[in-house]
C-alpha cells in the first residue's frame, strides 16, 4: 500500500498523486490518499483531485498518520 499525505493546492496535489501513481506502476500496490492534514490544518484548501479521472484502485482516508 502506498499512502500519500495530500497537502497544498491543486499543483501540489497533482504532483503527489503522480508520484504515487509512478510508485504504483513500479510496485503494483494500491494507493491511499490521506487528507487528514488538508482538512484539519489548511481550511482554505480542499481536495481538488476528485475533479479528475483517477486510477480505480485509489481510496481516500481521513485518519491521522503516526509521526516518525
Compact description:
With 68 residues, the chain is α/β, with parallel strands linked by helices.
Question: Could you please describe the fold and organization of this structure?
Answer:
By secondary structure, the protein is of the alpha/beta class. Helix content is 35%, strand content 18%. The chain is built from 2 helices and 3 strands, in the order E-H-E-H-E. The chain has helices at residues 10-27, 36-41, and strands at 2-5, 31-34, 58-61. The chain has a 3-stranded parallel sheet. Strand 1 (2-5), helix 1 and strand 2 form a beta-alpha-beta unit. The longest helix has 18 residues, at 10-27. The two termini are 18 Å apart.
> Per DSSP, what share of the residues sits in E-state strands of 2 or more residues?
15-25%
Largest sheet, strands/sense/barrel:
3 strands, parallel
- The helix-and-strand class reads alpha/beta
Low-confidence stretches: none
Task: Assign an overall shape.
Answer: globular
Rounded mean pLDDT is 84
Radius of gyration: 12 Å
- The separation of the N and C termini measures 18 Å
Spatial order of the strands forming the largest sheet: 1-2-3
What is the fold's blueprint, element by element?
Blueprint: E1 2-5, H1 10-27, E2 31-34, H2 36-41, E3 58-61
Parallel strand pairs: 1-2, 2-3
Which features characterize this protein?
alpha/beta, single chain, 68 residues
Amino acid at each position: 500500500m502506498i499512502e500519500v499525505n495530500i497537502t497544498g493546492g491543486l499543483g501540489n496535489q497533482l504532483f503527489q498523486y503522480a508520484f504515487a501513481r509512478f510508485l504504483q506502476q513500479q510496485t503494483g500496490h494500491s494507493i491511499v490518499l490521506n487528507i487528514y492534514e488538508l482538512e484539519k490544518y489548511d481550511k482554505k484548501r480542499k481536495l481538488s483531485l476528485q475533479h479528475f479521472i483517477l486510477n480505480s484502485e485509489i481510496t481516500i482516508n481521513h485518519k491521522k498518520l503516526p509521526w516518525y
